[in-house]
Amino acid sequence: MKELSQTDPLVRVRDLKIGATTDSGRSVEIIKGVSFDIAPGEIVALIGESGSGKTTIALSMMGHARTGCEIRGGEIEIAGRDVAQMSERARAALRGVDVSYVPQSAAAAFNPSKRILDQVIEISAIHKLMPKAKAEAKAVELFRALKLPDPDTIGSRFPHQVSGGQLQRLAAAMALIGDPKLVIFDEPTTALDVTTQIEVLRAFRSVMELGNIAGIYVSHDLAVVAQIADRIVVLKGGEIQEVGETQMILDAPEHPYTKELLAAFEPVRHEALPISARAEKTPILKVQNLWAGYGPKRNGEPMAKVLRNIDFSLMEGRNLGVIGESGSGKSTLARAIAGILPAYRGDVLIDGHQMPPELAKRRKEDLRQTQIVFQLADTALNPAQSIGAILSRPLAFYHGMKGAQAETRVIELLDMVRLPATLRYRLPGELSGGQKQRVNLARALAAEPRLILCDEITSALDTVVGAAVIELMKELQRELKLSYLFISHDLSTVEAICDDVLVMYKGEVVERMAADKMASDATHPYSRLLISSVPKLDPGWLDGLEQDPELIARFANR
Amino acid sequence: MKTLSNPLLLISHAHHGYAFNKVGRAGLAVIIFWGLIAIFGPLIEPYPPGQIASYDIFTPVSAEHWMGLDYLGHDVFSRVLMGARYTVGIALASVFLACTGGVILGMIAAVAGGLFDMILSRLLDAFNGIPSLLFGLVAVAAVGSSIPVLVLTLAAIYLPGSYRFARALAVNVNTMDFVTVARARGEKTPYLILREIFPNILGPVLADLGLRFVFIVLVLSGLSFLGLGVQPPNADWGALVRENVEGLSLGAPAIIFPCIAIASLTISVNLFIDNLPTKIRDRS
User: Fold this and answer.
1) Does B280 contact A24 at a Cβ distance shorter than 8 Å?
2) Is A359 close to B184, i.e. CB distance below 8 A?
């Protein structure tokens, strides 16, 4: 191994090509000749939509290609050695010591049956780096550096005994134990709540700076990347679109795709539709003192009470956002309104009509008026049915449409959500995430509803794709006079489509306010904490952020 | 596909068709072969199965008797042809009854849940606790051996296992969002189980059917071996093995050929089920 001079890059990637072979034997190029450098101690972000190849490139730094894929050409030099040409044995020696990896879901990456500390120091045992006692001492040092609570004892817990944000930091400790020169972060904060994300980002940044470790940070979230990366590589379709210093990319993007990504961050503010002349007096949806929960019932009350005394109303043609962190009861609210989870106390009135809590007791006509769209389009579409069959079913079920009439309507519905008519012959597995979510929306529209309950429908989509879905929803609202109940943890999306916002915390509505005045009008301390925790497109945001530690202690479940 | 407005579609649909590998084809060929024998066997058998062809016993393969003679001097070739009808017919009928019943009940239990699921599951679990051959012996001995009794007994023995298997699969599918969406639409149980759940558990259910078929052939052979299966002068393959078990020490073809028949059928059913034709769908 040759000595590195100060100016040599730590990572030198030249003309990297990665390909795969499909089931029918067709060869596909995933990465089409990518070149970039990473200097020692520098953090480079790979950003792009899903399928752009960002994770594939990041994994190739360890010489790893996912099943079915292979590195087909080019050089990946890490500290002067070409990983692409290495034997599998040499790559194994490199992993964990020179290059290490922090996965997206730490919860899935930890073995639930082993204590955390034993897993964190595993790398030192595999590579015989140091005696066990020394490794344990080092791990505790890392826990302290990552600002974990009780650094001396947290290692003796099991993975389910710590929070999601803590587990993600512990995964970072696991990656750092072997003193790597390069750490790969694969969307490490995507699954975390915003208030938790801040602490994790701060911890990552401080240990990386302290150890002068280089990093690759894979993400689709520009605002998060802006806080941690020195340089940004924008990818699309397996090719580099643009490379630049973080500030430059944010201020003066050159490539149209980068501009699109940035534009998706500046949502077009929602303008309320003029309410129809007949000035509706009855709201389309009214929820009164609603209580709902899960588990076996005792004295008519379930063991786990999730929703407590929810009270709100939504006028026709208006959109109501529901924000809050995971576990706040947002999705349960949508389920209780739709009757999927029967509420045990309180009333749901749709267009002034009282709904029975149980789904089975509701009339078909009432069910038709309220449709629900779920977050994960993958699981919300039956993988065994063609798109045409999926869309025809509500037509037959609610409207009795069959044959050619139904087919014409399916084509119309696909057109409404801007999808080509030929798509109806395909299975859901053959569609992209954004297409699936549009089909999902089309299925709800097939019922000709007046109210659509949207449960995090853009959260699993790429920024640009999600923004397009939101635009589509606004258009549909204008054409079809719909009302939306829009559940999301993403405040900028809510701002883009909603008139009003409910803030939920632990199953209660803590505040209701106008969506365009969230930043200024929020009075409840939890709303303020939540709103201030959303990353901004400003590299200095995280440093400048000051939050009341008492508030954090009270509300954030870090 | 009538129109191809999208050029991407052209690429992805150019490869469409069914992929069916050689192992699967071989398995299917053997199954079809035995199926044809079961139907047309009696037309080509050289001797009636009950007729004693010669006073020689356990003779080796000869031009006149392709599979030799058995312990009474029957022509074994004729008897194997005749046995195909019983083995393939009874086993197929039982396995379809067992799996259809088990899968439908399993899906209903998964969708309905609650008390119905609990009672049905415990009942069938209790039933599952009875050793299968013992149950078969008692049932057949009590009612008397006839083909409908055999089919129903074998189906009853294998239904609880099929139920458990299908219920476990259906419970997983039942929690998926698309089923929730269908429920929220107001769909009733028959639609939920047939359109939403069944297509998504079909693969494993077929694999289970193949395995269960083999077990049924073996239990039927076992019952015949004990004299409670198909009654003489007719015989299924298991009965042929039992009749000629003394010939084992003589290496008589009379015992080898029925064994080969059982093995070839059960193995090829599994090869076929494990290598079903798959539609090639290429994401692009």
Assistant:
1) yes
2) yes
Candidates A26, A376, A422: best to mutate against B (most CBs of B within 10 A) is A422
Tell me the whole-structure pTM to 2 decimals.
Answer: 0.78
Backbone angles phi, psi at A556, to 5 degrees: -85, 135
Closest CB from A362, A380, A383 relative to B181: A380
User: How close does chain B come to A382, measured CA to CA in Å?
Assistant: 6
Domain assignment of residue B8, yes or no: no
Q: How far apart are CA A385 and CA A340, in angstroms?
A: 23
**Strand locations in A145-229, DSSP E?**
182-186, 214-219
| Digit-coded pLDDT (tens) for B85-138 | 888 888 889 999 999 999 999 999 999 888 999 999 999 999 888 887 788 888
| Residue B248 in domain | yes
Within 8 A of B12 by CB-CB distance, chain A residues are 430
ipTM above 0.90, yes or no: no
Which residues of chain A are under the pLDDT cut of 70?
Answer: 1-7, 23, 267-280, 553, 556-558
> B234-271: per-residue pLDDT in tens?
888 888 888 888 878 877 788 888 889 888 988 898 88
- A21 touching chain B per CB within 8 A: no
> Is any Cβ of chain A less than 8 angstroms from the Cβ of B175?
no
Question: What's the distance, Cα to Cα, between the start and end of chain A in Å?
Answer: 43
Domain harbouring B68, CATH code: 1.10.3720.10
pLDDT of B269:
87
Which pLDDT belongs to residue A276?
Answer: 56
Residue pair B254/B68 in contact (Cβ under 8 Å)? The answer is yes
Q: What is the domain range of residue B41? A: 31-165+202-276
Residues in contact with A217: Cβ distance below 8 Å, sequence separation at least 6, in sequence order = A43, A44, A45, A46, A185, A225, A228, A229
Q: Residue for token digits 């001492």?
A: A137
Instruction: Report the alpha-carbon distance of residue B179 to residue B191 in Å, rounded.
Output: 10
pLDDT of residue A468: 86
Pick the closest to residue A1 from A105, A114, A94, A138 (CA basis).
A94
Q: Identify all chain A residues contacting B4, using CB atoms and an 8 Å cutoff.
A: 422
Domains along chain A with CATH numbers = 11-263 (3.40.50.300), 285-382+447-536 (3.40.50.300)
pLDDT at B283 over 80: no
The reply to whether B48 falls in a domain is: yes
**CB contacts, 8 Å: A26 with chain B:** 15, 282
Residues A225 and A234 sit within 8 Å (Cβ to Cβ) = no
Asked if the structure places residue B197 within a domain, the reply is: no
Which candidate in B185, B205, B284 is best for mutational testing of the A interface (most A CBs within 10 A)?
Answer: B185
Report how many domains make up chain B: 1
Q: How far is B256 from chain A (nearest CA, A)?
A: 42
- Could you tell me the pLDDT band of residue B226, with boundaries at 50, 70 and 90? confident
Distance of CA A262 to the CA centre of its chain: 17
